[in-house]
Write the structure tokens for this entry.
Amino acid sequence: MTTEFNPVVPMHHKHHFLRFSTILAAKAAALLFFFTLAADAAAQTSTLIMVRAMPDKAKITENFAPLPELTKADIGQIKIGGKVAPVTDVQPLLNGPHVLQLMVLLDSEQMLGAGPGQFDSIKKFFHDMPSNVEIGVGWLLQGKVVVTQPFTTDHDLVGKALVAKTREEAADPKNDNGNPFSCLGYLARHWPSPNPGKLRAVLMFTDGIIRNNAQPQSGDQVDPNVLAAAAELEIASITPYPFFWQDPIVPDPNRSEGGELEGQENFAEMDAQTGGAGLFSGLFAPGSLDPLLSRLYTTLKSEVVLTVADPYKPGTRKVLDMKSTRDDIKLFGPDQVVAGNVLK
């Protein structure tokens, strides 16, 4: 006769076993939750975003309107890559704690500065900039940017770097700008003195016309050069402020000038993607630079710098979505941001 062993566990032992299993499962879940939070916290990156307010019904291509004052209370929810990015700080762009590097670019095909008072207006703009703004000067030349004055807070020194092209120099094929938007892409990839802790912007004096792509002027399609430049500016966290300038007297009658509207449309398309602001009034170069430079100063003064806890690792590029707490304004900035403002 064989005796079969039946491992019957008393009921009070079963209760102890179930309680022990439940405790183990709870501890495991708690550890998993802790490590998930720790991983999320470790992934958070401090990212700077330049933002300004826009009237809710205003269009980017409309004439300039006064910008509403933007305060911390106006900042609603910020999402990066679909994830909430908590705002940890809001500071003014000008006279704030963050350094702004502003690269000023002159077009090698244009004679800006040859007219009376033109460089005086730009120098005055330089002197209006507060001490937290570093200014550099360079040229759009053959698809690249040639820096003639590195970033400095010495505004007298940077003013001396403004040199006008003569008619002969502007007409010389060697001084062809080689596409202003290719120059911007080059600048984005070769930004002088890159520092993730400093903000970046570019003031570019050019007509924005692309002469080397053999495409019809003022077409309905966005020029791929503009889209490529805008993407590279976003990757490098650079905000563009293109100033429309075209010499009233054509340097070379044999050179195709394109259409003024084409250049301004290129500016508007780039601004819409990057959070920039085109500076133009009418289809022709302004008689005085002062009104548009004053507009730029007002724009910069209205902008704020958001510091957000970016949920992604440094160098990750994701879509930016911003909402204001106010119904009458919208927050305007780049379409995408790079975590940590890292230059690759």
